[in-house]
Structure prediction request, 602 residues.
Amino acid sequence: QEVETQTMSLIVQKFGGTSVADVEKIQAAARKAIRAQRAGHRVVMVVSAMGKNTDALLGLAAEISDQPPAREMDMLLSTGEQVSVALVAMAIDALGSKAVSLTGGQIGMKTDNSFSRARIQSISTERIERLLDQGHIVVAAGFQGTDDDLNITTLGRGGSDTTAVALAAVLGADSCEIYTDVDGVYTTDPRRLPEARRVEVISYDEMLELASLGAGVMHNRSIEFAKKFGVPIHVRSSFSDTSGTMIVAEPESTSQPVSGAAMTADEARVTVLGVPDVPGKSYQVFSAIAERKVAVDMVVQNVGKAGRADISFTVPRGELTATLQAVESVMDEVGADGLTHDDQVSKVSVVGMNMASQTNVAARMFRALADASVNIQMITTSEIKISTLVARSDATLALRAVHDAFSLHQKPSDAKTWSQIKAERGERADVDALVSRLRNDALEALTLTGISVTDHQARITLHGVPDYPGIAADMFETIGAAGIFVDMIVQGYDGEDAATSVSFTVDADAVAKSLEVARAIYKQHQMRDVQGTGDIAKVTVSGIGLRSHTNVATKLFHELAESDINVEMINTSELQVNAVIDAKFASTAAERLKVAFAPALH
Ligand code: ADP
Ligand code: ASP
Ligand code: MG
Prediction:
């Protein structure tokens, strides 16, 4: 008997808000868990608050105070999950099986003390395992934990996914099933674009980027856990028994350049004008924002006139006020000329594992937007994503245009099923999992996998690029047609001239040709200036969840500023932070970063 329980497989089943919205749904969820248990599995359920209960609690708080204390907010929001776990456990009991509900504190979910966005530090599994051994279904509250002082904390909206995958990771579960109101992961939110296609398989890297760029189906931090520990996630409908989407190490296709598109409707752009172009200024701006734990995206510096630069970036619209306060508090210290913002913008992005090895992917995206008459206000790229900032009124049109342009509604001809991928894996279990190297007291700590330098790079910058639809498409089609492979692209924002600057990096061997092409473009569109810099290098910090750990880019700015190194371009993704610097500082920079990030390097 003992031995048998030891070898029984363990399943984590997570039920989102709509999946436990009323009594019937709670009973249906209970039956799913009981069925799994009768099939011979040990079952841990993770449950969200019923329906829109979390929103209702937020609304109540807003009626009492504009700025409710963060600690009390978490105390309040955690009650939603406490209600649903108790009801689910009662439902299981009423159906004749054994269940015990547990709060975050009771499952030993230890977090840091950043209320409303707490990170998991450790989870103790003894109590869960004891209850499972006794034949119970364990019903754990999602989204919540406790800090060192036993204050109740929450993980951030959508955080029950992270509870579920973290539990699956530490319990060594055989599978983690996410039951929700869609039957899997789609090429984009099917509520926005009905033509979106359900994918059978998506890779951790792609899902991590998509989740962080607006695909609300999974909490992005849950994918960090899945990738670190090699947990396969099955996203499926709670209202049917059909199988859904597997989130695993491998992508669905090894040829299609783009596998998903996402949109963050409520984004805001902030521009700090006239920042003295000397090392350390970006650090001052971004450290002030990072202190408030706001995740900054789409950072672009336009080298402007008279040794001054404009720094633009985007933040979630809800964080705009906090961001502006943070920047205002350092304006004097920075010595900047002014601050502008726009809260009527959205971010539209495409993501794909295979784009790094293909030319013209960016040009195809820009052409699709141009054909839809959508003006691109900003552009940033990194190895597996391209993001554009557009007016909010254009956002859905833009999303549809790029979804169409990459034929995302069609299954790629080389698409693999999960069973094919599994068969090809053979005995190679735990693909890419870092688990053996991670400590149980720092589960969600920053995890870096490497720091490297790519030298022999060049940067081309076009100034005074007119701000109307089609320019980016023309430019990058022309560059692509000349056979030039472009790595990073950034397009900034320049309120003053209604014109922007565009920079891109190429291999140093391509600098002469790139300049020639850039000069032709410059003449054709009457731009202000073209510059080429041959001696630059790219310093890359690689890891997992780099954008959600808001301090990585800040720390990079800090370390480089301390060594008096100017950052010329930067891009950030969940997987990499890249900084373009003068090539002569490349090895100094890499050494310094290796030391500074040593505790997080695995
Ligand atoms: P739950 O309450 O179960 O956690 P969520 O509302 O958090 O459910 O997530 C499911 C929703 O995510 C879907 O209803 C869908 O509208 C949205 N969504 C956004 N992007 C995607 C995508 N790429 N694929 C599937 N669903 C998506
Ligand atoms: N109830 C929380 C929320 O609505 C957590 C979750 O559902 O994942 O955000
Ligand atoms: Mg959710």
